[in-house]
């Protein structure tokens, strides 16, 4: 369902050319939990931007759900992001002036979903992100970091996307709340959601089922995670 | 994004910084209010000048010696300077059809002294019985000049209310008293009702004597300074003007006129032009403040775009199209200016009301100027909001999300 072939990305900064990706090829199947790991400057952020349709590759092809999205216009990419991708950012990026409920429904507003249906879907995804009901109409500044990140996860889920892209989702959290967020991802994955986790911390990447290690714009290793760390309880029982 | 969501988003953005939004709106309020107030004062002045000219006699043609040059209007014509109009011209004009009254007039300024010793310098008009008809004059006390007095060269005078007050004081009746005009004793037989004219048109400060008395005793010339023709039917104004013109050309045996015939419409036209210029002048000063208000909007919106860069990045990341970002910021700008427009119109109305009730200047707020103000304020929102909005829409989502 994600098929990348020979993706390259070059930037021009003044007269100096920077090559961020040097021909990356991989496939991610539906229902996978993949960690893309690498140090800063490795090109993992660039890869995440292309996977998230925030940017277009310089060359190569990117098929998402069998659609070539590598050559779409700005507005075409916006539609793909709206319908097929859910983002979870390191910096949370909630609207500070809007309630939890309004933040979660925001992608549905842009998708043109009627108001009654929005509340229904938001309720589902807030429950899916294990966000307690009594805070649904609170403002983000009344919530802790872990809670805020759950709102962001609920927002990413609300459009029932093909792909959830999490960019350093635990980067701004302490290890305990970070584990709670990872637990949520593991549970969502067990329910069938495809998750791509971008991180520079090997400890965090250990929670995924497959790890793509990227360095200097190329894939170093691409293998299933050995000794996968499981936080999610039901998963414990299964394994 | 549907209109309701757009409205809610805009409202929450504008209310999140109430002081800044309020100050920006204030700029527009002041601009719109001053446009409304200034235009209403200009329109009011126009209206009061028009009604005071109509008070001089609406169906009136005035024949004056000399030629009014085209385009120079009545002010520079030097009326009364020529010596081409005679009493016989007036007699001939009386025979024309469609004419209600013909009033031959000779006027000059004289020093006037009352029997109690007050003196004033006023316009003395020699006129006949038809003068009061042509100029819509009403005698408050006493009578107007009669044909018999005209024939007998009587030394009688009808005086205006201002002249009466100047000469005899406000508390004393002037009727039956005597005045000296240029040393000659006249008896006051009537005092006119006030017409409330002012400035160039003060008909209240005047003395009317029989035309024969004026010509034979006071001025010693038999020329007329003007002939007023009251036309019976307003629709016949131009045809009467034409026949009077032909008649006088024949009588004077000239090919090009050595006289001018001016209608009230001509005078009205000239003065309307003056007041329109005045209104435009006031409105453009007010317009400048509106422009400054618009720049305030742009400034605020640019700041908002910078401050909310990350928000814009997020909105784009979750699927907002360029046009949706543009619309959102444009709506914020238009809502600011529209709100400013509503308050500004109300404030302008209040100012116009205060000016007319406190300063006594007539004002009139027209629906046209209100609609114009709304249109202009919404237009300013679009014009000054467009640049910041398109800047927001063009932001790259990645860079916007990374913005610190």
Give a written overview of the molecule.
The complex is a heterodimer of chains A (239) and B (404). By secondary structure, chain A is an alpha/beta fold. Chain A has a single domain (31-53, 75-238), classed as Rossmann fold (3-Layer(aba) Sandwich). Chain A contains eight helices and ten strands. In chain A, the strands form two sheets. Chain A has a six-stranded mixed beta sheet, sandwiched between helices. In chain A, helix 3 packs parallel to helix 5, helix 4 (115-128) packs across helix 5 (145-157) and helix 5 (145-157) runs parallel beside helix 6 (175-190). The two termini of chain A are 26 Å apart. The model of chain A has no long low-confidence stretch (mean pLDDT 90). Chain B is α+β, with helices and mostly antiparallel strands. Chain B is built from 13 helices and ten strands. Chain B has a six-stranded mixed beta barrel with strand order 2-3-8-5-7-6. Chain B is elongated and about 105 Å long. The two termini of chain B are 27 Å apart. In chain B, 42% of the residues are buried. Chain A binds chain B through residues 49, 52, 54-55, 74-75, 78-79, 81-83, 87, 89, 91, 93, 95, 97-98, 106-107, 109-112, 115, 155, and chain B through 1-2, 4-5, 12-13, 16, 310-311, 313-324, 397-398, 401.
């Amino acid at each position: 369902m994600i098929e990348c072939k020979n993706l390259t990305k070059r930037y021009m900064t003044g007269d100096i050319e920077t090559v961020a990706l040097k021909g990356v090829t991989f496939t991610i199947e539906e229902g996978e939990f993949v960690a893309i790991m690498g140090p800063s400057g490795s090109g993992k952020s660039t890869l995440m931007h292309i996977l998230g349709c925030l940017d277009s590759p310089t060359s190569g092809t990117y098929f998402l759900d069998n659609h070539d999205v590598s050559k779409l216009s700005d507005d075409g990419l916006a539609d793909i992001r709206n319908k097929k991708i859910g983002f979870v950012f390191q910096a949370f990026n909630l609207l500070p002036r809007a309630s939890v409920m309004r933040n979660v429904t925001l992608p549905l507003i842009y998708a043109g979903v009627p108001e009654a249906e929005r509340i229904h879907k938001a309720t589902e995804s807030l429950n899916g992100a294990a966000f307690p009901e009594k805070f649904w109409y609170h403002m983000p500044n009344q919530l802790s970091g872990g809670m805020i990140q759950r709102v962001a996860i609920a927002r990413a889920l609300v459009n029932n996307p093909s792909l959830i892209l999490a960019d350093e989702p635990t980067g701004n959290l302490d290890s305990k709340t970070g584990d709670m967020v990872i637990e949520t991802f593991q549970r969502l994955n067990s329910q069938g959601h495809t998750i791509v986790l971008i991180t520079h911390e090997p400890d965090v990447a250990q929670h995924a089922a497959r790890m793509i290690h990227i360095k200097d714009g190329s894939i170093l290793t691409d293998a299933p995670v050995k000794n996968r760390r499981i936080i999610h309880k039901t998963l414990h029982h299964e394994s | 994004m549907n209109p309701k969501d757009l409205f809610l988003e805009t409202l929450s953005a504008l209310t999140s910084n109430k002081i800044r939004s309020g100050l920006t709106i204030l700029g527009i309020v002041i601009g719109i209010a001053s446009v409304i107030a200034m235009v209403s004062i200009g329109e009011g002045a126009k209206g009061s000048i028009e009604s005071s000219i109509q008070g001089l006699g609406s169906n009136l043609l005035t024949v004056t010696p000399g030629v009014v040059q085209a385009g120079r209007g009545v002010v520079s014509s030097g009326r009364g300077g020529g010596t081409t109009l005679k009493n016989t011209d007036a007699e001939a004009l009386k025979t024309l059809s469609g004419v209600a009254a013909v009033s031959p007039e000779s006027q000059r300024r004289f020093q006037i002294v009352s029997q109690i010793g007050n003196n004033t310098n006023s316009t003395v008009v020699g006129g006949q019985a038809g003068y009061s008809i042509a100029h819509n004059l009403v005698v408050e006390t006493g009578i107007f000049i009669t044909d018999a007095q005209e024939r007998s060269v009587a030394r009688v005078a009808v005086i205006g209310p201002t002249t009466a007050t100047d000469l005899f004081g406000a508390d004393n009746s002037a009727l039956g008293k005597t005045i000296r005009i240029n040393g000659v004793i006249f008896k006051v037989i009537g005092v006119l009702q006030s017409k409330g004219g002012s400035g160039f048109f003060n008909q209240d400060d005047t003395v009317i004597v029989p035309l024969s008395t004026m010509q034979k005793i006071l001025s010693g010339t038999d020329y007329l300074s003007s002939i007023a023709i009251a036309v019976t039917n307003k629709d016949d104004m131009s045809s009467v003007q034409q026949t009077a013109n032909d008649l006088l050309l024949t009588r004077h045996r000239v090919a090009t006129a050595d006289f001018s015939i001016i209608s009230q419409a001509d005078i009205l036209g000239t003065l309307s032009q003056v007041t329109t210029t005045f209104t435009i002048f006031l409105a453009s000063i007010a317009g400048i403040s509106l422009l400054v208000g618009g720049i305030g909007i742009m400034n605020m919106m640019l700041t908002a775009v910078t401050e909310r860069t990350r928000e814009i990045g997020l909105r784009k990341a979750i699927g907002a199209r360029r046009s949706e970002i543009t619309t959102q910021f444009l709506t914020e700008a238009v809502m600011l200016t529209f709100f400013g427009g509503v308050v500004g119109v109300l404030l302008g109305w209040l100012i116009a009301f205060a000016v007319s009730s406190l300063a006594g200047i007539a004002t009139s707020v027209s629906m046209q100027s209100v609609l114009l103000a709304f249109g202009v304020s919404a237009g300013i929102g679009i014009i000054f909001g467009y640049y910041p909005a398109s800047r927001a829409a063009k932001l790259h989502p990645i860079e916007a999300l990374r913005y610190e």
